[in-house]
Amino acid sequence: MNTIFRKSMLSVAGLAFAGGVVAGPIAAHAANPAVDAKPVAVAVQSAAPKPQGDQSHITLNDEQTANVKAIIAATKKAGLPERAAVISIATSLQESKLENLGHLGDANDHDSLGLFQQRPTSGWGTPEQITDPAYSTTAFLKGLRQVDGWQDMALTDAAQTVQVSAYPDAYAQWEQQATDLVGQHWNS
Predict the structure, then answer these.
(1) Phi/psi zone of residue 123: left (φ > 0), alpha (ψ -120 to 50 degrees), beta?
(2) Which of 25, 62, 130, 165 is positioned for an S-S bond with 114, CB 3.0–4.6 A?
(3) Calpha distance 92→60 (Å, rounded)
(4) How far apart are CA 25 and CA 31, in angstroms?
């Protein structure tokens, strides 16, 4: 019986302590009329989503940098925000390392071309159109706009919904570099 009594008392004491911890600041605030009880406005900045998983990085040459700028220009022309450019650049980094790929011959088992590895036989456009960075970006962005909620999706999910890749998670590894590139070139 002594053990039961002791456990009961400890339980009551624990509840009293927890109640004091919660009620103490409330009671202290209520007892002090000098404290202004008006809500305080807090500035909250919307941050870009944190990149998922391990990140890859490549050093860009002049052609690749020009392609970054072409993707950004097409994104701005389409009236889309920086996030669309980040998704586009990350997708192109995965698909072509930002190189405007022509016909790859035996190294390619399909007819994929350009910055986004788009296929003429899948309706992306003619080979000439697909290898035009402005056209291929606009085509990619058109697909992105058709994805409900793309603005709030993980980058790899948004890119995969447009691209339908055999490696759906591969886009995520380029998010940090794409974000940095957009930050560097968006206003230039």
Answers:
(1) left
(2) 130
(3) 13
(4) 10
Taking the C-alpha atoms of residue 78 and residue 90, their distance in angstroms, rounded to an integer, is 18
- Quickly tell me which residue has 């202290």 as its tokens: 28
pLDDT of residue 111: 81
Tens digit of pLDDT for each residue in 92-126? 999 999 999 876 655 555 688 999 999 988 999 99
Q: Is the pTM of this model over 0.85?
A: no
CA–CA separation, 183 and 173 (whole Å): 17
User: Alpha helices, DSSP H only, in 34-150?
Assistant: 62-77, 82-96, 127-130, 133-145
| DSSP state letter for 60 | -
Cα torsion angle, 117, 122, 126, 127, sign? positive
Instruction: Identify the segments of the chain with pLDDT beneath 50.
Output: 1-47
Distance separating alpha carbons of residues 107 and 164, to the nearest angstrom: 20
Question: What 3-state DSSP class applies to 118?
Answer: strand
